[in-house]
Amino acid sequence: MVRKPPLARRIVIAFSLLTLIVSGLFSLAIVAIVHVVEKDLVGEELGRQMGLALTTYQDEGRVPEFGAGTRLHAPGLTSDHLPPSLVGLPEGFTEIDDDTQAYYAYRRSLNGQEFVLLRDQSEFEAREQILFTAVLLGFLASLALAWGIGRLVVGQVIDPIRHLAHRVRHRAQLLPLAPALAPDYADDEVGQLAQAFDAAFGQLGCVLERERRFTSDVSHELRTPLMVIATSSELLQEAELSARQRRLVERIDQASEEMRELVQTFLLLARAESGNAIAGQESTLRQVAEEQAGRWAPKVQRRGLHFEMQVLADDDGHYHQTFLRVVIGNLLRNALYYTEQGEIRLSLEAGGFRVEDSGIGIADQDKAAVFQSFVRADKTRGDGLGLGLSLVRRICQQEGWTIALEDREGGGSAFSVRFSS
Q: CA–CA separation, 92 vs 86, rounded Å?
């Protein structure tokens, strides 16, 4: 898609182009009028002088004398000869401009005699050149003035739009107590745009509030049945069970624990998006990483894959334990879903960590979409709903972390998370 220039630049360019066209046409009209007037007036005057000369010639048998710059050529009547360049001129007025001099010529024939009246137009040409220079300077000045006025108009027109855009980009505008935009603008097109934004923000705020309440209510209501499941699993583990039954109970207990963490995460996110402070236990990156490695390493190894956790550099920061646990766990789960052979590696670095796998990888056109809700890179693999990476992105946005996805050398994917400095 062709990228258009900024609106301010387009306004200045349009203003300048309009002035260019109007001033250009006006300047060309002046030049054309000068030429037309020159031909009509000078031709009329030379015709009148030629008539006077012919009348004098008929009445007195002589030709009159004219002022400086004007002379009459008549074979047999004047001593000077007609230049070769003036021989064969058409009847009437003619403008001659050669390499040496410029003339106005008027030719008439009488009784076989050819009369040519010449007037030197050098002085007129000089004045004409001055006029054309003035027209050119006026044309350039009008362009410069148009550019300056365009910049001034842009400041008056674009500044309110920029101010409105800045306020629209401000996330606080979605808060319930955020002031309306429209009262700060006049009742014009910008004011109408602000009113449209107010209406859209109002509808979006209602949708977000309903979503927060739904998430909070559902998460709160799920805590009781999850507690029942976890308690029942503990009681079942104390009973005499076969090896297969014990494995099933352990799976139930592990699934309920993961569900409890997700519920707690959703509750924390809903509370944060409502503007409430988030309290929770903090842990170091290495503590949470070792805990998650202990949980996911057996699953990875049961799939015939190699799991490795490596500490490339120590990180002394303390982070929200629940959020960090969910981020690492979901990235490891995602790697396990899409890896058939090879390895999964969790690398700890100063200020962040990486989760790499040797799986099928993610196509370039799908990389931006995998962080959206209900989107999966390969729907034929795994049994997830496509919410894991979306939840990871929401947590990173909440905590000020950054997450990036890139291709792993040799095949597979690499997710890197960097903590805020």
A: 13
